[in-house]
């Protein structure tokens, strides 16, 4: 969203009808410090997901790691 605002001058994503905030979802699934945001690496570490061989802040690797985290949190008991 921030990138869209930067490059296009608006935070409205008219081409996206539904959006899932994975970061917020993950933070709600585990106890996490209020006022602090959980990063993708932290979520992966909490779930025991191996990040070796993945390059952070690269679209493909970040999306694959996000998918692994989402799956991990969905499979995990609350």
Automatic annotation (TrEMBL):
<protein>
    <recommendedName>
        <fullName>Exonuclease domain-containing protein</fullName>
    </recommendedName>
</protein>
<dbReference type="GO" id="GO:0003676">
    <property type="term" value="F:nucleic acid binding"/>
</dbReference>
<dbReference type="InterPro" id="IPR036397">
    <property type="entry name" value="RNaseH_sf"/>
</dbReference>
<dbReference type="InterPro" id="IPR012337">
    <property type="entry name" value="RNaseH-like_sf"/>
</dbReference>
């Amino acid at each position: 969203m921030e990138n869209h605002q930067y490059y296009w001058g608006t935070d409205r994503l008219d081409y996206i009808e539904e959006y899932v905030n994975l970061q917020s979802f993950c933070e709600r699934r585990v106890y996490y410090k209020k006022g602090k945001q959980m990063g993708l690496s932290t979520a992966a570490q909490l779930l025991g997901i191996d990040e070796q061989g993945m390059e952070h802040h690269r679209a493909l690797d970040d999306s694959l790691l996000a998918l692994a985290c989402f799956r991990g949190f969905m499979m995990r008991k609350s």
